[in-house]
Specification:
Length: 227
């Protein structure tokens, strides 16, 4: 009698032994990278604090009425965002604009829209151009107001976009990404204010931020190693 051969059971239509073998090392490397980003994000937190303190110190040298316009812009955006409308489409338009601008270099396409506050940058250059022809005080008032609005909008929506990304169980992307964005954004605004106002010093902003962060790390180091 002829021996009948029975078909072997399939392990699964989509089963790929090569991919299965490569999956584990890839998963491990991703988790290691997440842990590294988490550690780096925690290390950035002293700079978040120090850059905030440095910025507040420097902006205090600007005319109080102009400070009020800036903080009014910050508060106005928060009220509109929390109680009226999120207006996420405005942020998305700016996001897409930067993607087009940096389309020549692919790595920047992914990073620049989150890192650069496009509307704050636009307002700065519009002010520089208009200030050549308009000498009225209202121009700098509205500039400071919209600096507050646009910076707060960029920070909130960038934070939201990073937080909603999948696969971030340790929140490493959020802690590292938003901390880095926050520091860079404050630095950009500090540079703009340095250009506009004589009393605002970008160099002092950087030195103060570095000094305070250095002091925090020195205290942490001394406590850990009892130096």
């Amino acid at each position: 009698m002829e021996k009948k051969e029975f078909p072997k059971k399939e392990l699964g239509r989509n089963f790929n032994p090569d991919k299965a073998a490569a999956g584990k090392p890839s998963w491990i490397s991703n988790k290691v990278f997440d842990i590294i980003k988490l550690v780096l994000g925690i290390c950035l937190l002293p700079f978040v604090y120090s850059s905030t303190v440095a910025f507040l110190r420097q902006i205090s040298y600007i005319d109080p009425s102009l400070q009020s316009y800036f903080w009014s812009g910050v508060i106005t955006f928060l009220i509109v965002y929390l109680f009226i409308i999120e207006a996420g489409w405005v942020y998305e338009k700016g996001h897409k604009l930067l993607e087009v601008i940096f389309s020549f270099f692919q790595p920047l396409v992914k990073v620049a829209p989150y890192l650069l506050p496009v509307y704050t940058i636009i307002i700065f250059f519009v002010y520089l151009i208009l200030s050549l022809f308009i000498k009225d005080h209202w121009l700098i008032n509205y500039t400071m107001f919209f600096f507050g609005v646009t910076l707060m909008m960029h920070l909130i929506f960038s934070s939201k976009a990073i937080r909603l990304k999948k696969g971030d169980l340790l929140r490493s992307n959020y802690i590292f990404g938003f901390s880095f964005i926050y520091i860079i954004n404050l630095g950009i605004l500090a540079f703009f204010l340095n250009v506009i106002f004589k009393n605002f010093s970008f160099v002092n902003f950087c030195n103060t931020a570095h000094s305070i962060a250095g002091s925090i790390f020195a205290v942490i180091f001394s406590q850990l190693f009892k130096v």
